[in-house]
Amino acid sequence: EVQLVESGGGLVQPGGSLRLSCVASGISFDSYSIGWFRQAPGKQREGVSCISKSDAFTFYGDSVMGRFTISSDNDKQTVYLQMNNLKPEDTAVYYCAAARELWAPCHNHPMRLQGNGMDYWGKGTQVTVSQ
What does the DSSP assignment read for 72-131? Predict the structure, then answer.
């Protein structure tokens, strides 16, 4: 059974930091790109970041560029999202998703920006940025 499990969310003040983790099981980790997405109430799902194993390519959405960093630990089958200088508009449920490297999801706009066609999804972790 394939599982993606997110953790690390919580309540943080503006300007603070959080590190999200996405632990994958049941897949050949090296054969999958992992993306982070978020969805706030009343808003469409938004692609935050993506990491490709085959070419070490990383993608960041415009709203998080320079503040968030994605990384991967293949031994632990875990992808991290370090989030710094958090803003109230970062408040959302954050999901990780996996797609086969074959589809080059981190290079594919509908996949990396909206999550269309991703193979597997986690259940999400809530991030709230507030005073």
Answer: EEGGGTEEEEEE-S--GGG-EEEEEEEEEGGG-GGG-HHHHHH-TT-SEE---EEEEE--
Give the model's pLDDT for residue 28. Answer: 93
List 32's β-bridge partners, or say none: 100
Amino acid at 69: T
Report the 10 Å Cβ neighbour count for 23: 16
For residue 35, the SS3 value is strand
Query: Environment class of residue 122 by beta-carbon count within 10 Å: exposed (0-12), middle (13-18) or buried (19+)?
Result: buried
Tens of pLDDT, residues 22-61: 999 999 999 999 999 999 999 999 999 999 988 989 999 9
* Helix/strand/coil for 26: coil
Encode pLDDT of 106-125 as tens digits: 999 888 989 999 999 999 99
In tens, the pLDDT along 68-80 reads: 999 999 999 999 9
**Structure tokens belonging to residue 67:** 């503040």
